[in-house]
Every structure is written in C-alpha cells, then in structure tokens.
Amino acid sequence: MSDTTIRHGKKRFYDNAKFPRGFAKSGDFTLAEEEILTLYGDTLQALETGELTPENEAEEHFLTLLDNPENANSKVERTWLKYVRLARGRKRFHTLNGRNKPDAGDDYVEEDASLNEED
Fold first, then answer.
1. What is the per-residue DSSP string for 6-35?
2. Alpha-carbon span 63 to 79, nearest angstrom
3. Which domain, by its residues, includes 46?
4. Is residue 109 in a domain?
5. Which of 17, 56, 62, 106 has its CA 20 to 30 A from that of 116?
6. Which residue intervals make up region (Disordered) (predicted)?
7. pLDDT tens digits for the chain (119 residues)?
8. Model confidence, pTM
9. Distances from the Cα of 23 to the Cα of 18, 46, 53, 55, 71, angstroms
C-alpha cells in the first residue's frame, strides 16, 4: 500500500468524535488518505502517546517528525500530520455577517423631492 515500514495497527483506526461519518465522507481526506489512517492510525497514535516504542528507522523518524513537521517525507507521515491539524487544530467558522459596522456618515438619507423643485 505505501512506501513505509511503519507497522499496521492491531485494529482499524477511527475517530468518531471528530469524524463521525468517516474520514473520506468528511470531505477533508481522499480515499487513499482514509485507507492510510485506518491502517496505520492505531500504531501512529500509540507511538505518539508513548504506548508503543519504535521498532525501526521509519517509526523513529515519525517521532522526530512530531517536533519538526516540515521533515515529513512519506505519504503516511503527511496524512497523519493532516489528521492532527484537522482533528486537534482550531476549527474555522465562517459566518454570513460582516464584522465591520458602517460609519455614521455612511447612513443613507433620502432627500425630500419637494425641496429640489424650483418654483
């Protein structure tokens, strides 16, 4: 599936709290990224929390990657960083209302037509 030697998880990885309909249906991940997260997510989360110790060079590189995300060099690492950013980062909220209120001088004043008529 991928170009990494990171172990597959003992179980499939899901995040029902942040992505209750699944990773791909959220609109944030591709089908390939969803497959990577479900296969490797359990292992990556355990490595990140310290429940697992790294067994090879790829897993050791993943742990150093957590402090230096710009060093991601595999699809698995980039997908995990994307997941962390979306799941743990601040969610953007877009409203339809603007923040700026119009100035007092910008008020629309309707002129009285009778004042503009010449006698």
1. PPPPSS----TTT-TT-TGGGTSS-HHHHH
2. 15
3. 21-86
4. no
5. 106
6. 94-119
7. 456 788 898 999 998 888 888 888 888 889 999 999 999 999 999 999 999 999 999 999 999 988 888 888 889 999 999 999 888 876 666 567 666 665 555 555 555 555 655 55
8. 0.69
9. 9, 19, 26, 27, 24
